[in-house]
Amino acid sequence: xxxxxxxxxxxxxxxxxxxxxxxxxxxxxxxxxxxxxxxxxxxxxxxxxxxxxxxxxxxxxxxxxxxxxxxxxxxxxxxxxxxxxxxxxxxxxxxxxxxxxxxxxxxxxxxxxxxxxxxxxxxxxxxxxxxxxxxxxxxxxxxxxxxxxxxxxxxxxxxxxxxxxxxxxxxxxxxxxxxxxxxxxxxxxxxxxxxxxxxxxxxxxxxxxxxxxxxxxxxxxxxxxxxxxxxxxxxxxxxxxxxxxxxxxxxxxxxxxxxxxxxxxxxxxxxxxxxxxxxxxxxxxxxxxxxxxxxxxxxxxxxxxxxxxxxxxxxxxxxxxxxxxxxxxxxxxxxxxxxxxxxxxxxxxxxxxxxxxxxxxxxxxxxxxxxxxxxxxxxxxxxxxxxxxxxxxxxxxxxxxxxxxxxxxxxxxxxxxxxxxxxxxxxxxxxxxxxxxxxxxxxxxxxxxxxxxxxxxxxxxxxxxxxxxxxxxxxxxxxxxxxxxxxxxxxxxxxxxxxxxxxxxxxxxxxxxxxxxxxxxxxxxxxxxxxxxxxxxxxxxxxxxxxxxxxxxxxxxxxxxxxxxxxxxxxxxxxxxxxxxxxxxxxxxxxxxxxxxxxxxxxxxxxxxxxxxxxxxxxxxxxxxxxxxxxxxxxxxxxxxxxxxxxxxxxxxxxxxxxxxxxxxxxxxxxxxxxxxxxxxxxxxxxxxxxxxxxxxxxxxxxxxxxxxxxxxxxxxxxxxxxxxxxxxxxxx
Length: 733
Prior knowledge:
A hairpin with a 6-residue loop joins strand 1 and strand 2 (72-75). Mean pLDDT is 94; it is low at 729-733. This protein has 733 residues and is an alpha+beta fold. It is built from 26 helices and 28 strands. It folds into three domains: 1-39 and 189-366, Alpha-Beta Complex (Phosphoribosyl-aminoimidazole Synthetase, Chain A, domain 2); 59-89 and 115-183 and 411-557, CATH 3.30.1330.10; 558-733, PurM-like C-terminal domain (Phosphoribosyl-aminoimidazole Synthetase, Chain A, domain 2, Alpha-Beta Complex).
């Protein structure tokens, strides 16, 4: 194998090879090439995104630890912190959906409990292609079972998320995994090596050959032979993960360690280099002391991504106590090295030095690229779309039924019923809500979390579309009565070497920056996933936003479904007609992604937050749902489907009915209440439009004289899509 073939095989660029050679002052050893390839991959180094990510606001009154650690940490009062992060496991989940999704859950769990927090909720963002694409049902089934089996077995509830469908994900589905944990403010642990002479422990499962080159694989585009990458996909063991959680939390409860980090992407390589870099130290590692399942080379040991493993820096003299704890939980715990003052990682194998590499060169001084950007021609073309060119429907019942049975709005219960949402007995709002809500047992407060993004919006205008996606996540939280406090992101884009894709990314970051600064919601953790393309076809830009909020009275949190007959159905805010750019209506009825996006009004959202929080705390709200994809027609239909009643409403439609019913105006919330006078007082005080638009009734949805559908028909159509995917039937209406 010549040099070019060798570098291509491990994903190292020729200019990076020359840089490594220059720094070493000699020809790199194969293991050094492998390590550089992993550490300088997009997945580990953020080399194409770092200069843009620095623009994001990361500080705030509640932020304790921001980006750069294993997960973000925010203060949630009463001495408690929420620790959370979202990461992608896209490529592995396309190649081997069950293990790819399962190990994505396992990895993000470890990112959280390595900070000293017990994981208490999982969410997921799933993006699939057309149901007619041959692999889609297989991918959905494998991904959902992988998420469910891992989360269920490890005992962490999967309480929410989102699912989105578009043909662009046919050959590159996305799996974004989110975990939040609760910990004590005084017991936060960092992924940092410190204390010269301190022992380095390897703990958890034994190392095998699964997942080798996983980080590199995740940093490259797919071609038609993607499934040949199957050996680079990790294999998870949730039962071992559960033991590892308990062992690590017990370890952290004692004053015996200095730092701890998950062996995630690039395994022992990334964990050792990153811990050493954060601590400004070096490490000597003796690779033949690493517990392995089979005979392995030094490179394989360093690059394996076998799951359920951690790297621990213990305090000198506490070695036996560390071993005792892990022996109790039937897990390996071996001293494999020590902390040095060299700022170098030195690797030994069978008493021979096999690599000696400068830490900063691999991590903080890794190559950074300011890639070329170019606005795609389609941006201006699509913005000029004439909505009057589409013919007004003659049958609005039929249009609503077609929308409600589309993959975007179909009942996802057959999917999320495979997840245990109630384990740990903290769950208040379960999957199917605008946001998940859990109680913090030791406190009177609760935590709400949501994942959201509208890839169609971001495709049409990455800056504005990302702002609108942020605001959708924001509304999801405030609709439950929660105050948004921070977010994590998972930025899924195509090939950054394509100037048009890099333009999308750069513009999206600008949009997220504006939204975060304006609404005072900082970014505390996140992930970038590039190269989501296959044979030159890129996914829609998908900057998933995982937002977290605090709710003072979690038991008052409003769910979506209408609760009882005879309540007032109220609109807070006002629908503006014809805000149909990037709408679900255009997508699922006309097959188009076109048009100018809805307007942004941050002040309206700030007012909505104050009203919804106060109204929730005072118990005025029976149910609530924000108007977003699909407009007010879908919002009302979902409230009927998720609830126990129908609704009869009268809307102020002045022009074409479709321009009003399916308009995706931002900043409108529909509320069911028995206290409409008190709710109106709050809205008047805040300067928000308020109107009673109807009543909850028996089992029909009636909108003006335009739509009249019984709940049974709505539900039958709503159940059809995922019912066919999972061969699921529900006779209960």
